[in-house]
Amino acid sequence: MNDSYAKLRDYSAVKRYHILRTHRIQTVGEHSHGVALLVMQVEPNCTAELLKAALTHDFHERDTGDMPSTAKWLYPPLAAAMKVAEDAWNTAHDMDWHLNGHERAVLRYCDYLELLLWSAEEYTMGNRYAAEPIINICRVLDDTSAPTEEGQKIYHTAREILNKL
Question: How crowded is residue 140: how many other Cβ atoms within 10 Å of its Cβ?
Fold first, then answer.
């Protein structure tokens, strides 16, 4: 097996949500695949650069760990330091994708949408601990302009489903 491919597989195997009790483990690879699928829904004519970014946007977590969003929200200096570390890692590993502002917004939005959908799946399987991330991400998405009309539709559909739980 190619050494480079083996590293990519290692980056994909990082476990997410170490601070949340979960029924199942989600890896960075599963999450990134979900984000890429959402990107293709939200931005059907997306660039290859945006798709690459979606597939690799959390690979730095192999070295930095999965820093919870809540920690970054509570401690802005920590968020800033993590951003510096993530950017340096991406540059060192040739994963510094050049996205325009709209593409960055699509990626960020789809990253949050995937977290919401995964948390909703956990919740429907009986994991009441998933309620907190659902509430947090809904707050973020409620305060975030959807980058496309399709993105807004997906979020509203998810909210309708969540309201029935």
Answer: 15
CB 39 within 8 A of CB 51: yes
Looking at the structure of the chain, the number of domains it has is 1
CA pair distance 55, 75, nearest whole angstrom? 27
CA distance 56 to 138: 24
Alpha-carbon gap, residue 21 to 63, rounded angstroms? 22
Domain that residue 151 falls in? 3-163
Q: Given a cut of 60, is residue 1 above it in pLDDT?
A: no
Strand partners of residue 27:
15
Domain containing residue 98: CATH number: 1.10.3210.10
> 115 and 58 in contact (C-beta within 8 Å)?
no
Mean pLDDT (the chain, rounded)? 93
